[in-house]
Design goal:
Blueprint lengths: L3 H24 L9 H19 L17 H13 L11
Helix pairs in contact: 1-2
Length: about 100
C-alpha cells in the first residue's frame, strides 16, 4: 500500500486540497488586506492533513490492476491461432 506511487498520489491530492482550501478561505474576505493569513494557513494545513488521512483508506489513482495476467509467448501465439481459426483478426478486427 505505501509504495512510491501511493506517496506521490497522496501528496499530490493533499497539495491540491491545500490550494483549494486556501483559495476558498481567501475568497471569503472582501479585500486582500482583510485576509487573516494565520487562519488561511491553519485551515489549509488541516485540510491537507485530513486529505492524507483520507488517502490511507486507498487511492484509486495508485491502485494496481488486480487482474493483470502475464502470458508466455507460446500462450499468445496459441490465442492468436485460435482467434484466426474463428475467423477474426488477432488484433481484434473481424475479417471482411
Amino acid at each position: 500500500m505505501f509504495t512510491r506511487i501511493w506517496f506521490v498520489a497522496a501528496l499530490t491530492r493533499a497539495l491540491r486540497t491545500l490550494a483549494q482550501t486556501a483559495v476558498a478561505l481567501i475568497g471569503t474576505t472582501a479585500v486582500i488586506e482583510g485576509v487573516d493569513w494565520r487562519v488561511v494557513a491553519s485551515g489549509s494545513g488541516l485540510a491537507a492533513v485530513l486529505s492524507l488521512r483520507t488517502s490511507l483508506a486507498g487511492l484509486p489513482e495508485a491502485a494496481e490492476p488486480a487482474d493483470r495476467v502475464t502470458l508466455t509467448r507460446d500462450e499468445v501465439l496459441e490465442a492468436n491461432a485460435d482467434t484466426e481459426a474463428a475467423g477474426n483478426d488477432p488484433a481484434g478486427f473481424p475479417y471482411a
